[in-house]
Specification:
two-stranded antiparallel sheet, eight-stranded parallel sheet, alpha/beta, 12 helices, 10 strands
């Protein structure tokens, strides 16, 4: 039986920039904050890490340096999905070579894929590497919602570990749990659905919020995993206003602005992502004051 890549919180780490380059000293400070909060996994070059505007070389170097910094203190998961299977294979093999412990692979976007294409895409990547893969289903960005029937087939591959489910369809988690093998794991892909998904057997969350308050997100998730849903629900409700602000514009525009309140100047997002508008900035300023 396959073990989950991680249980609890996986932080979808922002990528800090200094001018037009990755700010690697700040990357280490961000990683230290996650280690200090005992976060079990960090996801690099995902949506929150601005993967579309990171070059292949930047993705590989970010993975290499991050793994060298954290060692075995937490699991490093590299985002390697694209809408070109051969390119996704290249990125996945490069991440494995750079030290990634696992991969997060978003479903193909724009050209999308029918069920047969989605299955073949993921199998080709899984066959090319020796480390586990978490599928990333986010229909709002990709334009396709991976069917549960495809999960069920992919779950038989030894390198496919589960799914980051960001479809907002809570009933889909029920269908996954009832249709797929028990060792095909589910992680919430939305900060506002962490506790509900854990209550249905999910293994935790891949979180944006935990960039800012990793200890609090860990406390919420750990409480839910321990069956203390009163505590978990209270924390879910407590942070819901901030979660709504963090997703009131395109992620990661709000969270990169809000990182200043966690003590980190992570720079602006790369174009085509712009700056937060003045209304959003004032709302975030008021929240943290």
């Amino acid at each position: 039986m396959k073990k989950p890549v991680f249980t609890g919180v996986g932080t979808a780490l922002v990528t800090p920039f200094l001018g037009d380059r990755i700010n690697y000293p700040l990357v280490e400070r961000l990683l230290k904050a996650q280690l200090d909060a005992k976060i079990p996994a960090v996801i690099l070059s995902g949506t929150t890490g601005e993967s579309p505007t990171l070059s292949d070389d930047e993705k590989k170097e970010l993975c290499r340096r991050s793994k060298a910094y954290v060692g075995n203190q937490c699991t490093i998961i590299a985002g390697t999905g694209t809408n070109d299977t051969s390119h996704a294979i290249e990125l996945s093999c490069a991440a494995e070579e750079a030290g990634a412990d696992a991969l997060l692979v978003v479903s193909p976007y724009y050209n999308k894929g029918n069920p047969d294409g989605l299955y073949s895409h993921y199998i080709a990547i899984a066959d090319a590497v020796k480390i586990p893969i978490i599928i990333y289903n986010v229909p709002s960005r990709t334009g396709v919602d991976i069917p549960v029937s495809v999960y069920r087939s992919l779950a038989l591959h030894p390198n496919i570990n589960g799914v980051k489910e960001a479809s907002t369809d809570i009933a889909k988690t029920l269908r996954i749990r009832s249709s797929c093998p028990r060792d095909f794991y589910v992680w919430s892909g939305n900060d506002d659905m962490t506790v509900p998904i854990v209550s249905l057997g999910g293994k935790g969350v891949i979180s944006v919020l935990s960039n800012i308050c990793p200890g609090d997100v860990a406390a919420m998730t750990d409480a839910a995993l321990a069956g203390d849903f009163d505590t978990a629900a209270d924390l879910q409700c407590l942070f819901q206003p901030l979660v709504e602000l963090l997703f009131s514009d395109v992620n990661p525009i709000p969270v990169k602005y809000a990182m200043q309140y966690a003590g980190f100047d992570c720079g602006s997002c790369r174009l085509p992502l712009g700056k937060p508008n003045e209304v959003l900035k004032k709302k975030l300023d008021r929240y943290f004051q």
